[in-house]
Amino acid sequence: MVVRLADVAREAGVSPATASRVLNGSSRSPAEAIAEKVRGAAERLGYFPNAQAQALARSSAGLVGLIVHDIADPYFSSIAHGVQHGLKGSGLRVMLSSTDRDGETEMEAVRAFMSYRTEGIVLAGSRTVDGDEHLAAAVETYRKNGGRVVMIGQPLPGTLGLRVDNRGSAAELVRQLVALGHRRFVILSGDMNLVTVGDRHAGILEGLAEAGLEPLAVLPGIFTRDGGLEAMTEYLESAKGEVARGQVCVLAANDVMALGALTAVRRAGLRVPQDVAVAGFDDIATLEDMVPSVTTVRLPLDAMGEQAARMLLGEEGEEAIQVVEGEPVLRESTAFCL
Are 317 and 300 in contact (CB under 8 A)? Predict the structure, then answer.
């Protein structure tokens, strides 16, 4: 049997309107003695308040929407963990949507969170080169109605957010690898329609140009582990002579692509780093535990999520956009071998 609000009101000896004000969080609360009677009746009958009714009563659902590109990617799961930790004690709960890097799915998630009356929305992930006019319009409408938006990656105009210095960090990684002795580089770029990929690619080229170098090859692919595996497998099949002439250093646009590249190298019967050195970008949690451990650019992913949550709560001062710089971390996978 489903227990209804009317049943609770009857049990407590009050009107349904009074019971609703107590249980759904209205600012027009009755006297505490009456409120206790209503809560006691609800507990005895096993009544659970309706979340939609609570949202209407408070003009808020007590929720924060979090939109990520791929929750299976440790980059985004680390950020999600940080957001959740940053909201701890605020009374807000996270509602998650993973878009699989599809723009229309992302828009549907934004519209859904708007309709749920969320307190705010956090969007984590790269913007596209083609632009985000529809997303920008939806975000502006949401903001005008009192919602707060924080973006991680490339914040849109008018939003709060964290901008990752992908270009500068990628250039610094190349400088440090060149200093180790590397001269023969392959770029595993990912989807060039993503701003993040374009910025990291530009940074790599900048670092190479400073050393008077050009890449041996640029390998586009999907921004995933399987994308890295496929692109690297195809390269190794077509460039056996190039690898035979000496150690090649592969620069992957993110860590999961780097892991896919590692698998491709091993399947080809080659050694890391003696034949093919591999570096990634982001520093997901598993890289240091790999054999060999994997060079990358460290981004404070968990801290970025936590900082985004604090910005959403208005705890980060007046600076709307904060810049996150990556830190190159050299590990065994890029040891230079003569």
Answer: no
Query: From the CB of residue 93, how many other CB atoms can be counted at a distance below 10 Å?
Result: 13
Cα 121 to chain centroid, rounded: 13
- Whose CA is closest to 282, among 161, 132, 125? 125
Distance (Å, rounded) from C-alpha 138 to C-alpha 76?
Answer: 23
Question: How far is 174 from 206, CA to CA, in rounded Å?
Answer: 9
| pLDDT digits 0-9 by tens, 246-305 | 899 999 999 999 999 999 999 999 999 999 999 999 999 888 889 999 999 999 999 999
Render 67-107 in DSSP notation, one character per residue: EES-TTSHHHHHHHHHHHHHTTTTT-EEEEEE-TT-HHHHH
Nearest to 255 by CA among 67, 68, 78, 66: 78
Q: Please give the C-alpha separations between residue 38 and each of 17, 41, 78, 324, in angstroms, as whole numbers.
A: 11, 5, 41, 50
Model pTM above 0.85: no
The rounded Cα 70 to chain-centroid distance in angstroms is 8
Please give the domain boundaries of the chain with CATH numbers for all domains.
5-57 (1.10.260.40), 63-164+303-325 (3.40.50.2300), 166-297+329-334 (3.40.50.2300)
Which residue, among 128, 159, 333, has the nearest Cα to 250 in the 3D structure?
333
DSSP string of 235-280, one letter each residue: HHHH-HHHHHTS-EEEEESSHHHHHHHHHHHHHTT--TTTTEEEE-
Nearest to 270 by CA among 293, 294, 246, 296: 246
CB 178 within 8 A of CB 149: no
Which residues are registered as beta bridge partners of 328?
297
CB atoms within 10 A of CB 210: 12
Q: Which element (helix H / strand E) includes 66? A: strand 63-68
pLDDT digits (tens, 9 = 90+) for 106-156: 989 988 888 888 889 999 988 888 777 888 888 888 888 788 899 999 998
